[in-house]
Amino acid sequence: MSLAVSTTRPRPELPVLLRRHWPLLPLAATVLFLLAPLPAGDATASGKVGPADAASLLLVFVCAVQALRGRVRALTPLAAFVLGLPAVGLAVATVTAGDPYAALPGFVRYLQVFVLVPAAIVLLVRDAGEFRLAAGCFVVLALVQGAVGVVQYATHTGASYQGEDVRAVGTFGPGDVMGMATVVAYGLVVATAVALAPGLPRRVRRSATAAALALVLPLVLSFSRGAWIATLGAAVLVMGLAGIRRALKVLLALGAAGVVLVGGLGVGSEMVTERLASITQVSSAPDQSVTDRYTMWAAAESMWRERPAAGVGLKGFPANRDGHSSLGLSSGSDTGGAGQAYLRQPLLSPHNMYLLVLSEQGLIGLTALAGGWAAVLVAGLRRFASGGADRGIRDCGLVAVGLLVWQLTDFLYADIGGPSTVLTGVIIGLAAWWALPSRGDVDGPAVRLAHGAGPGGPAPEGAGGR
Fold first, then answer.
1. Radius of gyration, alpha carbons of the chain
2. Tag placement on the chain: N or C end, fewer CB within 10 Å?
């Protein structure tokens, strides 16, 4: 009697997966907890710790516990330097501030977003499979928030825009009109990168293409000029890295979707046209939001010239704004709709991250923060361009570089603030994970399976790297 031996390995059971990947649960929660609606007024309330922020603190705590147990990735000296450098600039800006105690909350917030959360992600995410799980959470968040935004536009229950309650803001409310636009753009960039990535199963790439097309509509209905510009820049870069042939397919699909939605169906066409035209109206009849933005940019520059080395201190821009602003600055912006009464929101930042850092932290802080971001971007691009052993996880490179480029471009028109701020730290962490690999990194099961190897079998030749 002959015995047939099965060579098929059983799929890992859920308890096994949880036992292996449980440290990533706080990371997933940091992203997905932004699906929870916020009470009215909480979007911009100072000192509020939302569910996503609480999850990010748990992520840092889990990382610390795992580090004590020796179960995290080993950082190279370069990675430790790049990730820790911003803390130096933050400490200098806090100590030299006119009121160090008033600057302390800003120090904690910046440390959370730009140091602790990115470092925790670099240490905890062990392979490409875990990276993909984290990136997938962005797409889920974007699809849900985008669906809420489309319903808001269709039912006139969104934030007020040009006298109508049609602006798509998702669950973030009118107090954080950039929140939905930001998370939808993140998801669109991730989906586009996955759709263009070589080596992934066809069904995965088709699903990603469908998700990217679906996210175009809520992004358009957010009426966020900065998000449009950043998404275009990131998408063009991702397409260029992926190759012309692959890029043309997705570009044609996205272009056709935009034409059909705005041109054919007339979805917000007049408002979108006016919003696009306002981007170039800087000196000739600009709207008040553009006037306020450039006035605050000038105020930030004036603060920096007053204290070029260390700036006016963290949280110092609002206190010094009026003394450095012209009479063209309005007292605030009106917000309302989406279930909230009209409220006058004060202008407390220059809506440009680089100028905010320059004014509050000076050249020391800007060099530490922006220098680290530039180092991560350059290292990420170099690693992607080198290919070689990393070809099996190039989709991770496309996602990481695309998200970072989106964030750095958006920082030209926005700064940190609101519940979605914590995602900035997640993006920097994912980008640093790709750009600053550890020598001991190996491919995870997801990578091996994508190339035909079993969960416990060897990776194919040349597919190593992580």
1. 23
2. N
For residue 62, tell me if it sits in a domain: yes
Dihedral angle computed from the Cα positions of residues 190, 194, 197 and 202, in that order, rounded to the nearest 10 degrees: -170
Closest CA to 390 of 327, 459, 453, 324: 459
Continuous H helices in 69-127: 77-95, 100-111, 117-124
Of the ranges 16-20, 140-144, 283-287, 382-386, which one carries the lowest mean pLDDT score?
283-287
CB 63, CB 119: distance < 8 Å: yes
220: nearest Cα among 158, 280, 271, 186: 271
Work out whether strand 333-337 and strand 164-167 pair parallel, antiparallel, or are unpaired.
Answer: unpaired
- Fill in the amino acid letter for 282: V
Are the C-beta atoms of residues 358 and 304 closer than 8 Å to each other?
A: yes
Residue 464 placed within a domain = no
Q: How far apart are CA 138 and CA 184, in angstroms?
A: 8
CA distance 386 to 380: 10
Residues 6+ away with beta carbon under 8 Å from 305? none
Query: CA-to-CA distance for 406 and 215, rounded, in angstroms?
Result: 15
| Cross-strand pairs, 337 | 159, 340
Euclidean distance between CA atoms 207 and 198, whole angstroms: 14
Residue 325 lies inside a defined structural domain of this protein: no
Residue-level pLDDT at 453: 37
Distance of alpha carbon 227 from alpha carbon 250, whole angstroms: 19
Weakest mean pLDDT among 66-70, 72-76, 254-258, 432-436 = 254-258
What CA–CA distances, in Å, run from 390 to 105, 131, 297?
41, 14, 42
Q: Work out whether strand 340-345 and strand 333-337 pair parallel, antiparallel, or are unpaired.
A: antiparallel
> Based on the structure, what is the number of domains in the chain?
1
Domain encompassing residue 115: 50-286+341-450
Task: Say yes or no to pLDDT of 464 above 70.
Answer: no
- Provide the residue type at 232 as one letter: L
**By three-state DSSP, how is residue 348 classified?**
coil
Cα torsion through 303, 306, 311, 317, rounded to 10: -20
Say yes or no to pLDDT of 452 above 60. Answer: no
- The answer to whether the CB of 385 falls within 8 A of the CB of 357 is no
Residue 24 confidence (pLDDT) above 70:
yes
C-alpha to C-alpha distance for 20 and 40, rounded to whole angstroms? 39
- Across the chain, mean pLDDT equals 81
What DSSP assignment string belongs to 112-178? Answer: IIIIIHHHHHHHH--SHHHHHHHHHHHHHHHHHHHHHHHHHHHHT-SEEETTEEEE--GGG-GGGHH
Specify if 303 maps to a domain.
Answer: no
How far apart are the C-alpha atoms of 28 and 111, rounded to whole Å? 20
387 in Cβ contact with 394 (< 8 Å): yes
The letter for the amino acid at 363 is: L
